[in-house]
Amino acid sequence: MLALAALAAVACASLALYAYYSLSYWSRRGIPQIPKAVFPFGHIWRTVLFQQSFGEECSGLYDKVPASAPLAGAYFFTNPAVVVSDPDLIKKMLVKDFHHFHDRGLYINEDVDPLSGHLFLMPGESWRLLSNKLSPTFTSGKMKLMFPIMEQCARELAEVLDGGPGETEFRDLSARFTTDVIASCAFGLEVHSLRNPDEEFRYWSKRLVSPTIVESLVASFCNMFPKIANIFRIHSVPTDVDTYFTNLVKDTMNYRDSHKMSSGDFLQLLMNLRDDQKKAEEDQQKLAGSKDMKLNTGQLAAQCSVFFLAGFETSSTTMSFALHELALNPDIQKNLQQEIDETTRKSNGKLTYDDVMTMPYLDKVVSETLRKYPPVPVLNREVTQKYQVPDTAWLLEKGTSVIMPVLALHYDPQYFPQPQRFDPERFSEEQKNSSHDFVYLPFGDGPRICIGMRFGLMQTKIGLASLLSRYNMETCSRTVKELKMDPLSFILNPTSGMWLRYVPSTQEA
Ligand code: HEM
């Protein structure tokens, strides 16, 4: 009994010592430490206990960085992380000193989860090679090729509302719209989930982006402790989801190859890359040992799935947040509708790619929506080479996580006065020029900036233009004005959904 008590005392003392040692990492290095880390969760206990979303928790940490310091140390569990609050330092880390921070440090294991081998997660040299290969498929020329598919989906979006007036939940409707767009543009499939919400592809795409609680806990564990996850070869993508998307891409490619078919979608652009690669090999243009990356079927499927992982909820939530704000701000909605109607009239009733991408007020409304509700509320990097923080003696060790709290910057009144106000004029030419660089980061920045920015903006804008050319958005009894964000979701996502009333605009009535 005595031995047992002694053993327990030693275990408790060791744990206390470990807790003290690991949670004093920053103080031992002379770097300011954010107060109140709680063992074993560190500074993210509200997120771990499902009380607050990760983005909001990181905003709280930003507020605690001392005003005199460009960053401060925090702990994610017992892992050290720095929270950077100084926009000049963020700029350096993302752009000039990128070679110290080129990875995200998240879990990726292509052998176990082929679908995880996509650009967002890819580290080091593999990321550089893949990024060089994929960048040409996201130019505005390539986006124009996909515009007609998108325009067709946007027309269907307005049609499914059935003339109105009525009430609907716009987060789900926007998600079905972006599902149809991505199914067509990325996978070459016409799924019509707008008309048929129970469509099979919609089911699997929902599974891909909305894991169960257990699946999201496993994925969070893998991202927090990637080394351990790698040793145990943990699946971070459910195997049934992996199999569905890999087979889908394989079957579509086989069908196109055997029927000599071609299309204007992203899968075709990837297949062309694969064919160019094969041809170069056959022509023996490829020097032995030269650095290139062969794209196998699993990798092609992974690049298509990234449209879902990185492009689906980001665009659909932006669309529904914009509609929510427009319903709350009828004057802004009216100005936007005027612009859309005038532009449509000038284009003989049919908006072109250039019309959609250059409407100035639509751009301001979408920019302000992305300020108030940045879908990716935190940018993260990993220190890949030891880094001395400029103008200090502070050294950041290799492997340290770096957190750039975008949501907090977007709500900092020194950069955006009265941050709760929805004011598209913050993005007028004059105001844009007078504001500080690197405090507005909805798409990130530097070499790892969002590669799908044009695509995301295009689908968000055409969806909004299509709805607002036919309907006025109004609040209804189910509209929740003070939105609460889902603590289980990394992307900013309201728990309540977004209920609005849609009424045919007078022009259509
Ligand atoms: C409104 C829509 C979107 C928003 C707000 C958004 C936001 C972001 C952000 C913040 C990042 C991280 C950038 C950084 O770390 O500096 C990112 C990366 C990325 N996004 Fe998007 N995104 C959107 C749409 C899309 C779409 C449609 C795609 C389609 C492929 C996409 C694909 C990617 C990829 C592949 C990366 C990783 C880039 C890399 O690491 O090189 N995104 N996005």
Automatic annotation (TrEMBL):
Coiled-coil positions: none
CDD domains for this protein: CYP6-like
SUPFAM superfamilies: Cytochrome P450 (SSF48264)
Topological category with respect to the lipid bilayer: Peripheral membrane protein
Subcellular location as annotated: Endoplasmic reticulum membrane; Microsome membrane
Keywords: Endoplasmic reticulum, Heme, Iron, Membrane, Metal-binding, Microsome, Mitochondrion, Monooxygenase, Oxidoreductase
GO CC entries: endoplasmic reticulum membrane
Reported cofactor(s): heme
Organism superkingdom: Eukaryota
MF terms in GO: heme binding; iron ion binding; monooxygenase activity; oxidoreductase activity, acting on paired donors, with incorporation or reduction of molecular oxygen
Main localization of the protein described in the UniProt heading: endoplasmic reticulum
Gene3D superfamilies: Cytochrome P450
Binding locations of heme: 450
Similarity annotation: Belongs to the cytochrome P450 family.
Protein name: Cytochrome P450 CYP6EL1
Species annotation: Locusta migratoria
